Amino acid sequence: MSGYIVRRLGQSVVVVIGVMLLTFLLLHMEPGNVARAILGNGVRVSQLRLDMFDSLYGLNKPLWVQFGLYIQQLLHGNLGVSYQSLQPVSTIIAQRLPRDAVLVGLSTVLALVIGVPTGIYQALRHNRPMDDVLAGTWFTLYAAPDFMEALLLIALLCVQFHVFPPAFPGGVTSIGGLFANWQALVLPVAVLSINSVAGFSQYARSTAIQTLAEDYIRVARAKGLPERLVVTRHVLRNSLLPVVTILGLSLPDIVAGALIAEAIFNFPGMGLLFWQSALAHDYPVMLGGTLIIGIATVVGNFAADIAYSVLDPRIRYGSA
Amino acid sequence: MAAHELAPHSPAGPTAPAAEGGEATVKTGGGQLSLTAFLHNKRAMGGTLIIVALGLFCFVGPLLYHTNQIAVNPLLQNDPPGAGSPLGTDQFGIDVLGRLMVGGQSSLELGFAVGLASTLIGMIYGAISGMFGGVLDAIMMRIVDTLLAVPTFILLIIVASMYSLSLAVIILILTALSWSDVSRLIRGQVLALRPRAFVDAATSMGSTRWRILARHMVPNTLGICVVTATFAVADSIYALSALSFLGIGPPPPFADWGTMLTGGVDNLFNGYWWQVYPPLIVLVIVVVAFRQVGDALNDIVSGNRTSPVRRRARRRLQIIVPLSSRYE
């Protein structure tokens, strides 16, 4: 087990470095002059100012030197400074990340609370109409693109009946502010959870079907255990296993935010940050953000693997 | 956008358990895709019919239903559905029904191109990685891990913010971003096939590894490839519409369902429902249809034991499954 962990850690480091290299190269592949794009496109900017910008951010050095300097700063905990707002990237991300933790976190919890019980219910009604109806419903909701669901919800709940506001009021930044405007939070959370319910219920359903065929379920029923206890004690606990994996794998989603939902509902999260900095050619922000998403992906995968083997003693990772 | 999340049994897992003594086994699952099972699968056939119908609608439709899709006509702006135009007109006075057809062409072309290209690349890459193993495998898989660790959509907006996108560029980018998923599945399948007897048999007869790869591994992974290709089609149609919806798709003369929705929120507030619902509905139908086919194929390929459809197909094919493998 410890050998496995060490090997996985080694791989993780390689992947994180790969992510940095990939994003760095991709961002510097851009045709045209960054300084010109930042200082004003189409506006007459003196060559002196362009040169000053380049030397200020080290853009006049060879690419590999720039990458080396970036790594060096990174190891000192410095993610760089945003070209646009001149704020440290770490500060910007630290502002945005908790908001997405609220948005994506809430919708994941909601999806879990809806998805797992319906999945188990479907397993209990396996091969009967209710199973097909629920499966079809979740699948359609999952397969339908999220911005459509958002538009339809807006059409229904904001335009037809004025229940919820269609967008976040500008200027809301604090976590307390998010909860104070809870009406504006309802629709984005709903849209995001609609898409994840299908995954959770499908996983819970297929594990529950397998579990229901096990001998220990038959034993539990044979000894007269009420069906309610069979379901909660035996089926539910076993069906939660794959869900733990999906939770681990959805960690990067929290960090990456949800661009579409954020763009539609004007939610000031990581997704919009990426979007705006991509349009503004704000490399340091994009590099920092991608790096953090890469780390979150690696950590999430890793945590899911480990949690899986801790929760299910039948799973053992060999050294192979 | 990982559609494979839904797959209850990952096709990468070791399928087709080793036969135990005395039991009759016919190879099922294991990446094989039978036409019979496909034809008897209601979801797969239903989805396919819808896709064919939509294809006809988009490619044959414009031949029968002539509309102006180029010139802006201020006199016809925002007309509700009526005699001249069955689905009304948009803010430029262009017929919505006709635009739906033309827009669908680019969506379907993109979907099929990306599905085919990314599956081909992923198949070759994954098969080589799984077949040769060792250091090469480790390096190749770290590259895949790296690509998978960066969300597709972020890479997409990075590139989209740099270049003005044409359909061909989007196809290239989406292909470059979506083959990594496929290669991992195929590698898993090849790893599962490598210890099988027929590989040893081929080796003992003097086959080279390249020959085994081409003659045994690739045909055995075709089932999975069809599944992943179907999901890739759905995902890339979605990605194109999302890009257009965000306003970074190809510039104006280009039409697709996403661009039709771009002004969606404003149009809804103005009450021009006919500009929003038709593309919405077609987009939902096409994405759901492709994902249904993919999901049904996945059930067939992975021998999903929980699927009643699969059991029926199996009975028809008179395939005997060893009892021991029924519930793993």
Descriptive report:
The complex is a heterodimer of chains A (320) and B (328). Chain A is mainly alpha-helical. Chain A is 76% helix and 0% strand. The model of chain A has no long low-confidence stretch (mean pLDDT 78). Chain B has one domain: Orthogonal Bundle (MetI-like fold). With 328 residues, chain B is an all-alpha fold. The two termini of chain B are 29 Å apart. Chain B has helices at 35-39, 42-59, 61-64, 96-132, 134-149, 152-162, 167-193, 197-204, 209-246, 257-262, 264-270, 277-301, 308-316. Chain B contains 13 helices and no strands. Chain B is elongated, with a radius of gyration of 23 Å. Chains A and B meet through helix 1, helix 6, helix 7, helix 9 and helix 13 of A and helix 5, helix 6, helix 9, helix 11 and helix 12 of B.
Radius of gyration of chain B: 23 Å
What percentage of amino acids of chain B are in beta strands? under 5%
Uncertain ranges of chain B: 1-31, 304-328
Distance between the amino and carboxyl termini of chain A: 11 Å
What is the H/E order of chain A? HHHHHHHHHHHHHHH
Structural class of chain A: mainly alpha
Q: In CATH terms, what is the fold-level topology of chain B?
A: MetI-like fold
Query: Largest sheet of chain B at a glance?
Result: none
Helix-strand category of chain B: mainly alpha
How much β-strand is present in the residues of chain A?
Answer: under 5%
User: Main beta sheet of chain A: strand number and arrangement?
Assistant: none
State the order of secondary-structure elements of chain B, H for helix, E for strand.
HHHHHHHHHHHHH
| Helix content estimate of chain A | over 70%
Number of strands of chain A: 0
Measured as a percent range, the helix fraction of chain B is: 55-70%
Low-confidence stretches of chain A: none
